[in-house]
Specification:
By secondary structure, this protein is an alpha/beta fold. About 35% of the residues lie in helices and about 10% in strands. It contains eight helices and eight strands; from the N terminus they run αβαββαβαβαβαβαβα. Helix 4 crosses helix 5 and helix 7 (about 215-230) runs parallel beside helix 8. The longest helix has 17 residues, at about 215-230.
């Protein structure tokens, strides 16, 4: 099982717990703070409301019903497995709801994700441009790998519009490498950044209990990095990946426990 398939399965597992009681935090929600959240499981809207975030996305193009007031949905054109002409309909539906942004292809450099060549992505990009929405770049496994560099360079030559760059990051529990990474990507492409997936991962862990990154270390990481993300002027949005607590590499990054209640990390993400 590859990393992306594992992330999808762990996301679904994380959302299968019971619906927690709604929090009573009086803190104002961050404009930047968001969440990648599947809507297959009952109680997803309550979890979204409890987290008190500004925005979310589902890796899909259609806004689900029951979105809590004050929370914005951002659609994504995950790949090109559907009819290309449907992209125009996504744009029309988004505008009708007051949505202003659209996320591009999800990890097109992965065979079990969007699985697109650079040429295929470039050929389809004008369809996304025609929606008139602000466009987020494809979100590659690494934002500076050969696929992404080739896409961004060709898009510039062809004068294709990309308004912000989407970044995924599953590193260790140290804020400095993440901040330096974001600064590097911003300098490389000269675009605003959306950190659309991030968490702390131990991809060499043999089991969940042997994950090197213990909950206390991940909590300290979050406490330190969120204020820094808020201060980065070129970073427009960020979204934590809510993995299952049973996940071997990502269980210590879980926002919810097995019963569907907020972990200490989840409370931190809600409150900072």
């Amino acid at each position: 099982m590859n990393r992306r398939t594992f992330l999808q399965l762990s996301l679904m597992a994380a959302l299968s717990g019971g619906t927690p009681a709604l929090a009573k935090s009086t803190r104002a929600a961050s404009v930047k703070k968001g969440l990648g959240l599947g809507t297959q499981s009952e109680g997803w809207a309550d979890k979204l409301k409890e987290m008190q975030i500004n925005w979310f996305y589902t890796w899909g193009p259609k806004a689900p019903s029951g979105i809590p007031d004050g929370t914005s949905f951002i659609p994504m054109i995950w790949g090109l497995k559907g009819k290309k002409e449907n992209i125009a309909g996504v744009g029309q539906a988004a505008k009708a709801l007051g949505i202003k942004e659209l996320l591009g292809f999800n990890e097109p450099d992965q065979t079990k994700q969007a699985n697109l060549s650079v040429e295929e992505a470039l050929a389809a990009w004008p369809l996304l441009m025609k929606t008139g929405l602000r466009l987020g770049s494809p979100g590659c496994v690494q934002p500076d790998n050969d696929w992404m560099k080739s896409f961004m360079a060709a898009a510039k030559r062809k004068k294709l519009r990309i308004d912000f760059v989407c970044v995924h990051n599953y590193g260790g529990p140290s804020p400095d490498p993440l901040i330096k990474r974001l600064e590097s990507i911003h300098k490389l492409y000269g675009k605003p950044i959306w950190l659309t997936e991030f968490a702390v991962g131990d991809w060499e862990a043999p089991s969940a209990g042997e994950n090197r990154h213990k909950p206390d270390a991940v909590l300290r990481f979050m406490e330190k990095v969120l204020p820094r993300l808020e201060r980065l002027d070129f970073l427009e949005r960020y979204a934590w990946f809510p993995a299952s607590p049973k996940s071997t590499p990502l269980g210590t990054s879980a926002l919810y426990d097995d019963a569907g209640k907020l972990t200490r990390l989840g409370q931190c993400y809600r409150d900072i």
